[in-house]
Amino acid sequence: MNFRIYSPAASLAPYVKHYYHLQNGNDGLLHLPQNLFSLGDLYMVFLQEGEVTFQPEQHASFTLPKAAVVGHFTCHHTIRVQGPVKMTVVQLNAYGCYKLAGLNMSAFNNYYRDLLKQDSGQWQYLVEAIQQTTDFMQLDAVLDKVFIDMMATQEHSLKQMDEVADYMLRHQGHVNIERLVRKFKISRPTLERKFMEVIGITPQLYARMLRFRDAMRHMQQMNVEQWQSFITKSESYNQDLFNQDFRFFKGSESTIARMPVSQTMAVA
Fold it and tell me: What is the per-residue DSSP string for 85-108?
């Protein structure tokens, strides 16, 4: 498998986080780095060749069109391809899709949206620009130009939800809805409605994703004794909640409870 990672232009931050280009000649399950199609982020996928099918554990499988927004994934999933496959992936933050495309995220269903069915011809232009790129060392420059032009020619107000999401991220999800309502001086129904429109999931679920993602990051760096000290210090998160989230987001049982204290953890 040929896999490249690119850094987008600084002016696209924080909305666009990374670009990826993947070429794979084999059929079957596709194994990708952990940070790709991960919790809390959205992804634009532009398929130049082959077929890519996602199988969420708690949802029917779906095969991607040539240009799509994918996410937020709220359960474990696998990716199966029929090759040869060639695709370009744009990793966005939680509100990056709304900022770039102005899509009502609450209207998403089946985990994805076909970009070529949207009103604007900009997505067809981007598909063709990627398709015509033969030197993939220049792919980031092609994507940068399109997205910078996009942001310069259209304005999609984030309705203060970028501030809410960033605040939640700074606190790694350890905030409740009442705290958000007080801080941002907005009613709970309005907050939840706007958050769904801009982010695509409820603030409660986004906070749960952030807490679990932060806990996983700590767990990967600790032995069991250190982990037990870390998880018992939190007032809003504990081992039982972590185990529930592990089953929900990873689709399997956590082995942490069965490890001897002296053993160092390695998490796939």
Answer: EEEEEEEE-TTHHHHHH---GGG-
Residue 130's domain is classified under what CATH number?
2.60.120.10
Exposed, middle or buried, 180 (CB in 10 Å: 0-12/13-18/19+)?
buried
Q: Nearest to residue 16, comparing CAs of 7, 26, 24, 25?
A: 7
In order, the DSSP letters of 204-238 are HHHHHHHHHHHHHHHHTT-BHHHHHHHHHH-SS--
Tokens of 114: 């076909």
- The mean-pLDDT minimum among 120-124, 141-145, 169-173 falls in 120-124
For residue 168, what are the domain limits? Answer: 161-258
pTM: 0.89
Domain count, the chain: 2
